[in-house]
Amino acid sequence: xxxxxxxxxxxxxxxxxxxxxxxxxxxxxxxxxxxxxxxxxxxxxxxxxxxxxxxxxxxxxxxxxxxxxxxxxxxxxxxxxxxxxxxxxxxxxxx
Length: 95
Known about the structure:
This protein has 95 residues and is mainly α. It is built from 2 helices and no strands.
């Protein structure tokens, strides 16, 4: 009976060591993955968040400016069309 306890005790020690080693390997893999992710994000091809937000704001402002200019052009075209018709109407009215 004593030898059975020794066998289970040894098996328990081996299993505990194996789980500890597995936990250590898991930590190493996680650390390596984090390190690789940081390297990828910090690569020259990646854009910083604040730079992205600045370009996004500039693009939005440009888009709004384009819409304003489109509205102004449409108003000017209407005014030009009205001016082109006004002399014709005034000449017809005077006859």
